[in-house]
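Curious: explain these tokens?
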Amino acid sequence: MSIPLAAARYHGDQAAQPGMLDFAVNVRHAQPPAWLVERLAARLTDLAGYPSRDDELAAIHAVAARHGREPDEVALLAGAAEGFALMPNLRPTLAALIAPSFTEPDVALTTAGVPIHHVVLDPPFGLAGVQVPDAADLVVVGNPTNPTSVLHTREQILALRRPGRIIVVDEAFADSVPGEPASLAGEALPDVLVLRSLTKTWSLAGLRVGYALGAPDVLAQLTATRPHWPLGTLQVAAVAACCAPGAVAEAAADARRLAVMRADMVSGLRAAGAEPVDGRAPFVLFAVGDADLTRKQLHINGIAVRRCDTFVGLTGQFLRAAVRPEWPLLVESIGAER
């Protein structure tokens, strides 16, 4: 099973027009917190110089301390998406993509000519009983998964390990789950590569910041083709700031508030006649009778949601919506259309 590359390159930011209430994009807030804006603004006068190695090392050490890893187990990235773009450097002979899932790995591997096998999960999209081809030497899985919102257990993901295989875990939304109970970011395993994003939690989608955690030899192979100075001064500064203990605590408190809001939103969607998938991410995948019609009616009402027919394994009944304080307006609009 596959989808056209044009569909795989579709993302939620294409769904909303200016002035619309945007549930299609999963960036947590309308702008970064004031303290982070101030921190980045203070570095603007440094942009005449090349990115500093000292700054880079400070960011690497901040990430390492945040996850209890060694500095050589950290690679800074221009967003988790860069990690997906670099995966062909791992030279897989067969990549197994656990689907439905974020489509950038599909795009990167297909464009590089890597054979792909989609392991399509049926609702409720869990890993119980999953069958991955033995020949797959690269397995990519999201946790929690975009777009299903399903959080797999650590044991389920570790059960995918095999000799000669690398497991890539997309943890772009892991810090939105209180306590991060299923995260493998703190595990120093030779065959598990974890990709993290800072753009959603800290509202930095326009800056592109993230990092990879893995064995030094795997990271060296992953990043072998990057240019010199792969991240700019502001990106490196953002990583250091967002991985500092105070910022981590702030994000954790926000995750707890988000979980309460999500539960209320799920209840509201059910009351409106939708069928939410059980998940833990800062977005909700839900089924309606006719997703295309519902999405278009919401659009007319000034509300944008994420279409899901661009994901392998999802039928025409699913939509995805970010968890936002304005969720009652979404629920009201869905209920009015039924």
